[in-house]
Amino acid sequence: MKFQLLGTFRAEADGVSIVPTAGKPRQILSLLALWPGRVVPVDTLMEEVWGTKLPQSAPATLQTYILQLRRLLAGAMGPDSPRTAKEVLATRHGGYVLEAPVESVDVHTYERMVAEGQSAFDAGDDAIAADRFRRALTLWQGPALVDVRVGPILRIEVMRLEESRLRAVERRIDADLRLGRHTELVPELTGLTARYPQHEGLHSQAMVALYRSGRQASALEVYRRLNTRLIEELGVEPSPQVRRLHQAMLAVDPQLDVVAGPRHSTTFDLYVA
């Protein structure tokens, strides 16, 4: 079995798609696939589909959706499969569980690679960290569950995954900056700061990449735009870290060299104190 949630939702059994065309069964399968091997309570599934205002028919309708999913599974698995559809999408006390290995779900492969990247980053192994983060990020084929109608449960998970994705991008860029790849990073960071106009970490990285590429004026302009935006839109100045980074660039501080500072530090924290 194979499940892709990081982008367009895809689900396969023996190479055959088992993605329902109807929206609510698709929601249910998405939620079950997000937590393979874990019992998802009936109440959680119903809340995802109908929210807090459940129709009286919700329990019976949920059973109908589970039956539809099992029929899709049975058709994909065929009569010679060693397991039945009811064993794969199993009923447990109080809920249902998708009996699939975690490695069949792209989310769990992504999270494992991110954990490996973070461990390497913390150990100061920038090459391994950059590689693991980059490989993890290639699993994303678009916004998480982009073609699935999400309810309150999946919405939280999608937000969590998108935040994890942004953090992985940041850490990968930190590792790449450590490896002296500042010039190659400038186009990417230009796009990221435009997409996240109030994100101080990305703006710090853009400033450092431009500064190390011999573009001090452009680096200072990034700070000026961020400062103006934060004051006009939020009524606050950039954080002390970013202000100190700005002053360091004006003073041509050697701490801004590629290999400066502790190996596990982030760009944003170069001037944390």
Polypeptide structure, described:
This protein has eleven helices and six strands. With 273 residues, the protein is mainly α. The strands form two sheets. A three-stranded antiparallel β-sheet has the order 1-2-3. The protein has a three-stranded antiparallel β-sheet with strand order 4-6-5. The longest helix has 27 residues, at 152-178. The radius of gyration is 23 Å and the shape is elongated. The N and C termini lie far apart (50 Å).
Q: Helical stretch count?
A: 11
Low-confidence stretches: none
What is the C-alpha radius of gyration, as a whole number of Å?
Answer: 23 Å
Helix content: 55-70%
Tally of strands: 6
Order of helices and strands: EEEHEHHHEEHHHHHHH
Mean pLDDT value: 94
Overall geometry: elongated
N- to C-terminal separation? 50 Å
How are strands sequenced across the largest beta sheet? 1-2-3
Mind describing the biggest β-sheet? 3 strands, antiparallel
Q: What structural class do the secondary elements suggest? A: mainly alpha
Strand content: 5-15%
